[in-house]
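Journal club prep — side note

Before the paper discussion, L.F. wants everyone to see what a predicted structure for a comparable chain looks like in token form. Sequence:
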Amino acid sequence: MIIQRVLSAQVIINQSEKREIEDGLLVFLGIEMIDDSSDISWLVNKVLNLRIFNDNDGIMNKSLIDVNGDLMVVSQFTLMASTQKGNRPSYIRAAKHGHAIPLYESFLETAQKQLAKNVVSGIFGANMQVSLVNDGPVTIQIDSKNKE
């Protein structure tokens, strides 16, 4: 997963539908074959409570929940790319649709319940163009299999 703190972000789906957010987080969510519901719960909790927003003293000490920020989630299987051999990435670790879609939807539903506001998302497997204004810049990578 890649998390970016943004001033704004938008996703255009299949060259027609546009969805956007203002101050908040843009999450690129990649799901592996070995991921399960416990990974999703952990990731949602981490995203919503990660203290990467500035407090009144300009110190990153507030969470998305604290600042009542927006959340956009975009599925991105290319995060699972392996580039160890050759020049063509392998996506063997990426979950197939039957496994990934329920976990992706669970992430969205869980986040929406905990955030108590609409979570904006792309559409799993659709062709999407994403644009954003990264604030900071703040970009964080999180792996649910490396819970530090």
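L.F.'s comment for the group: Residues 2-141 form a domain with the D-tyrosyl-trna(Tyr) Deacylase; Chain: A; fold (CATH 3.50.80.10). Keep this in mind when we get to the figures.
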